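Input record, target 12 of the design panel.
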């Protein structure tokens, strides 16, 4: 199996990223670090432990990471994920294993990744980028050693794809979610994001899963019922894990509807994990030609990405300007990959197969 480290801020969609990372037979999840983001670090850490408990993988260590960005106050998303970061279900179990507190989380990541053979391990980031930026700033040699870095973050806009970011009147030109210009994970710690995206050793190994792509992958009612394995009206007959994940999707759909007029919520984060199981990882594709997930990256187009770091976090979009916007320009040089499309049905098949495996735990 392919070794990976997951850095996350659960988070409704992060919960599904954990599910795939922990239960796909071709993946070996080495550990999880948590970060400020959708909720406080305390909450995202408790949520990661609860999700691992629910899916029967309490053997995976959870390390609490950064409480705040490099040089800004933390920003959370209670309007999308509720105050806990994972609101909407009473089926979330309490973690039976406490988080690991006696090892520095950045050192734990490094030790686990450097112990893998060169050019094999992946770092997956589905939260704000403070921990991952600290990792590569502290241990720059790790950039050479890893196989790939996959980040859920950013938004390109400008005809990159034609999916709407919001269906609310007057928001037709919106490209971001937390502000009209910026995607949440990049916005929360733009300096950390820029340090990763401008690293010339990391760039050729980096995939950026932006909103232009994730807004194509919507957890429709049909998807929600596949998670439940029965119709919504029969929800009470489903198993606890399926009901819990269904509840999370229903809550997520509710907040997306209120905030963006989108009752079918985009399931951003698991796509960043799925990159490892795709044509963007040629060794995997070669070994699994029949089941590989296909992303559309226009045959390998690469981008130089600049993050807007001017401005302050604000309480309303109007005062934030373009802080956290990702400006992507095509490059012949060592740029990052920003796929624009994905085989949506294969992706859902992958999520559901991992759920089947989790149920057997
Ligand atoms: C990202 O922000 C968070 O709210 C989600 O978990 C996802 O990682 C989407 O912009
Ligand atoms: Ca997240």
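The sequence produced for target 12 reads:
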């Amino acid at each position: 199996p392919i070794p990976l480290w997951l850095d996350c801020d659960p988070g409704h969609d992060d919960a599904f990223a954990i599910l795939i990372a922990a239960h796909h037979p071709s993946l070996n999840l080495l550990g999880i670090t948590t970060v400020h983001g959708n909720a406080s670090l305390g909450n995202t850490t408790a949520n990661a432990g609860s999700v691992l408990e629910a899916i029967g993988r309490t053997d995976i260590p959870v390390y609490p990471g950064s409480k705040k960005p490099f040089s800004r106050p933390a920003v959370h998303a209670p309007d999308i994920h509720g105050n806990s970061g994972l609101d909407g279900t009473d089926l979330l179990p309490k973690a039976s294993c406490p988080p690991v507190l006696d090892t520095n989380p950045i050192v734990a990541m490094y030790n686990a990744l450097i112990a893998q053979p060169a050019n094999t391990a992946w770092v997956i980031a589905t939260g704000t980028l403070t921990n991952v930026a600290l990792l590569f700033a502290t241990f720059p040699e790790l950039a050479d050693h890893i196989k790939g870095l996959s980040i859920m973050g950013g938004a390109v806009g400008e005809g990159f794809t034609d999916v709407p970011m919001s269906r609310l009147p007057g928001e037709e030109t919106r490209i971001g979610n937390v502000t009209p210009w910026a995607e949440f994970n990049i916005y929360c710690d733009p300096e950390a994001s820029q340090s990763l995206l401008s690293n010339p050793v990391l760039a050729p190994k980096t995939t950026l899963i932006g909103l232009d792509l994730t807004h194509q992958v919507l957890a429709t009612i049909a998807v929600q019922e596949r998670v439940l394995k029965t119709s919504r009206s029969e929800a009470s007959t489903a198993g606890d894990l399926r009901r819990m994940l269904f509840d999370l999707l229903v809550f997520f759909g509710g907040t997306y509807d209120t905030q963006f007029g989108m009752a079918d919520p985009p399931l951003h984060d698991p796509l960043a994990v799925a990159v490892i199981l795709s044509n963007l990882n040629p060794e995997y594709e070669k070994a699994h030609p029949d089941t590989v997930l296909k992303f559309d990256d226009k045959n390998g187009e690469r981008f130089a990405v600049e993050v807007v770091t001017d401005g302050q976090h604000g309480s309303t979009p109007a005062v934030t300007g373009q802080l956290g916007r990702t400006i992507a320009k095509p490059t012949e040089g060592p740029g990052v990959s920003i796929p624009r499309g994905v085989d949506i049905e294969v992706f859902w098949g992958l999520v559901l197969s991992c759920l089947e495996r989790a149920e057997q735990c």
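The longest strand covers residues 27-34.
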